[in-house]
Each structure stands twice: as structure tokens, then as C-alpha cells.
Amino acid sequence: MNKEKKISYLVLVRHGQSEWNEKNLFTGWKNPPLTEKGIEEAKIAGEKIKNLKINFSHYFTSALIRAQETGEIILRILEEENLTKVKNQNLNERDYGDLSGLNKDEARKEWGENQVHIWRRSFDVPPPGGESLKDTSERVLPYFDSEILPLIKNGKSVLICAHGNSLRSLIMSLENISPEEIVKLEIGTGDPILYSFSEENFLKENL
Fold it and tell me: Is 117 considered catalytic here?
């Protein structure tokens, strides 16, 4: 008799709009809270995820308040506030170093549009004092492989609330996307991404 395929799920959510997103500032490891719009985005994400009727066992988030606030709102809507929760800075946003706190237009005036574009959209060129996307992936992926993937392989479903670049790093691995293509990927604030996992493979699903 064939064994029925065991399917688990991974849901990724970028945090809702933060106060610095609204002001067009490089945020990185700085810690602004959500705006009212960000809170609403988190609520909408929660409703979308609730409709999936997934029984989550674990919730992972970064050490930054905007991701934690987003996750807490989602968990309230899911009525899963007692879920196992893990906060870890390996899931933090990319560190923008000397750019952190600067308006993106001001940064272009100071360093030039081309240089800022390279810092933002290259895979392996970091801004002064900060991380490239490659650097970010080198902390996100080992953490995912050691702490999260074993749960999923064991049939557990996991929710991750994190950041644009930490999630890009993860999606690059899950979908086998090249370094050239991953920097073009836009992840909307509060926009859930769903993967099913079976037979050692992740498959992106429509929400």
C-alpha cells in the first residue's frame, strides 16, 4: 500500500508598512513601529492566512518590532496566540549600515543615483558599514536549514514574519532563483506567500 503524501506548509509574510517605509528611509536594523496602514495590512494578511485553514505549529520572526507587531496581529486573527514563538536576529532585515535612517532621495544626492542603485540592487555589493543581499542570505539560510526546515520536514507547518531582504534570501533558495533575478523580486508589505512541502520539495501555491 502506498503511503499518503505528507504535506506541510510554509507561509512567509513581510511586515506591514513601518513609519520609516512611509518616510522613504533606509531602515535595516533600525526599529520603527508599524503605521496605521501597516496595522491594517497585517490584519488583511491575517484574514488571508486564516482562510487557508492551516494548522501552524511554530511562528518565527526577527528581533525587530515591525515584524513582531505584524506577527502578533496575524496570530490574534488566527486565534493562535499560544503558538510556539521564536524571535531571532538571523531573520532581521539586511543591515544598511551608513545608509540607515537616510532618505533614499538624499542618499542619491550624496553618493549618486548609480552608486545607490548598485547598493540596493546588486547581490554582493554592500553599502558602507552594511550587508549585501549575499551577506544577508549567509545568515538567513543556515538558520532556516538548522531551525525551521527540520520542523517542516517533520510535517509541521510554519509561519515566518520577517523583512523584504531576509525573505528574498529565503525565496532565492526555495525557488532556485539566480542572484541576478532575485534582486528584481519585489515583496509587498503585508503580502503573504504560501508554499507547500512534500517529498523534499517546496512548491509555491496561489493564495
Answer: no
Is residue 21 situated within a structural domain? yes
- Indicate whether 164 belongs to any domain: yes
Q: How many structural domains compose the chain?
A: 1
Banded model confidence at residue 12, pLDDT cuts 50, 70, 90: very high
What is the Cα Rg of the chain in Å?
Answer: 17
Q: Which of 41, 69, 80, 93 is catalytic?
A: 93
Active site residue 15: yes
24-39 pLDDT, tens digit per residue, is 999 999 999 999 999 9
DSSP 146: I
Banded model confidence at residue 93, pLDDT cuts 50, 70, 90: very high
CATH number at residue 34: 3.40.50.1240
pTM: 0.94
3 occurs within a structural domain = no
